Amino acid sequence: MKFLRYMGSPLEIAAVGFAALMVLLAIIGPLIAPHDPYEVDFFNRFLPPSTEYFFGTDATGRDVFSRVLYGARLTLASALVVIVIVALIGIIIGVVSALSGGLVDDVLMRFTDIWLAFPPLVLAMGFAAAFGAGINAAILALIITWWPGYARLTRALIVETKDKDFIVAAKAMGIGKIRTIIFHLIPNSLDVLFVQLTLDVAAVILVISGLSFIGVGAQIPLAEWGAMIADGRSAMSRAWWVVFFPGLAILLTAVSFNLVGDILRRELDPALRRREF
Amino acid sequence: MQNSNILEVESLAVRFGESRARAVDEISFGLAKGETLGIAGESGSGKTASILSILGLLQRATVKGSAKFEGRELIGADNKLLNEIRGKRIGLVLQDPFAALDPVKTVGHQISEGLRASGWSKKRAMKHAIHLLEEVGVPSASQRVNAYPHQFSGGMRQRVVIAMALAQDPDVLIADEPTTALDVRIQKQVLDLMKQQCENRGMSLVIITHDLGVISNYTDRIIIMYAGKIVEESNRLKLFDQPLHPYTQGLLDCLPNLGNSENEYLKTIGGQPPIPGKLPSGCRYHPRCSFTEPVCTQGDNPQLVPVKWGRSACIQLEKFLRESQ
Q1: Is the ipTM of this complex over 0.85?
Q2: Where are the domains of chain B?
Q3: Given an 8 Å threshold on Cβ–Cβ distance, is B55 in contact with A172?
Q4: Is B59 exposed, middle or buried (0-12, 13-18, 19+ CB in 10 A)?
Q5: Cβ-defined contact of B168 to A173 (cutoff 8 Å)
Q6: Residue B94 is nearest to which of A163, A169, A184, comparing CB atoms?
């Protein structure tokens, strides 16, 4: 319970709790879902929330609660894949660029600029047109358009840190280059990177849902939050629950990951940390 | 004598970036085993640049000349050789103890890192770090080892930085302005500590400073630098009685004198040190020197020649010695 002591306000505890719950549901969701999320039942269309169907049913009688649970897995897994890959590509390119300097730096950064020029939404639509719309096309489009931010950010952080005295001091102690990068350069950039990462988990969730909503991401029968909202929006006036619960899931997940970013920033900076040794 | 020196610097020159001016201009000196050497001079005289260049720590600089550690050339050496020397044979205490510690790592991590890199187990290295912290006088070392730099005061940080430099038991300890950021009482503690550690370990000590008062009590031999050149080499017993260069005289006159300080302003040396690239002809000190003769303003910068108990670069040395008596 050491961890809980570091938490601040009840809001922060709730945020961490909710983010953890979402991750948990993404893992075990299918085990606890009361219904098959794809089972069509035309006799039970647009049922309001009840003890049988916690979040009601949609236009084809599918259980919204089960679909939200399945959606958690799909949405979080997609966001995670995107974030991990873009962070890896971006951090590696940023570190190499910052430490090489000169021509390598210029070439890598101009290359990064080229990719920075693609808007994710337009590229995703292009992919959908070229390869057929689907969640994979959306993920690919996001990866391609999202890593340049990390490359630029990491480069800026490393450039700022690499001439600091403590890096010279590490060098003067005979610490090798790789060790210096791993133990000093990257940890000193991690606080900023971590905040960016957690903020981006929220942003990626929103964009994936958005892409699915406009029809170039996950396709409609698939239990994905954005696609579910798109599916239910025509019946919003008589069955609010079909759009409300996936929307609520998107909102709370995005907000809680943002707050987790704030907490991480504080905990990763020894000077801001609440505990004293 | 040449061969008994652990560190032998020969015609060392440092240029920064694209500029043609030399921040350090062909300086030569030796350091014997167990010896204490002070390098003094104004800001920008090239003290720090010369030391950092020896260890290959200068960025964007061109270094020429030679610096041999136990006969092994360090200038232009590859990282593999340099990393065998850095920390393990030559320990460096950087100028600013506030900037020389990584804010996100515990001091224990930083002190033990060199040892960990050379294959010590974490437990053993941490134990040694605690021992070192005790040795440099950090109270309750076994707890403080897990603290972060921001939790230390200036004097304690300086001790931590010294412990870092001592961690791998080097043969030479180089301290760059080790007392600049500290108040006078702590200055003395830190200097005493370094001196004592050097005696205990048979280590050579180099103290770089702009404060002659500091090194006079702690170093046997003293080198005075001006505008990238060594202008005088002397020892602490003689330096204050009879400087061998007018610049040293000027520096000594600047020291506050407690004896007859009533209504007396501190003296300064008139003018500014020359900017590298706009060096005066002849002796670089001549525009500020009160012993200047026409011959001082002409030709190349005078050579450092052995005189009496040291070396001097003053071509009017006889006149200076006569008139300053």
Answers
A1: no
A2: 2-219, 244-324
A3: yes
A4: exposed
A5: yes
A6: A169
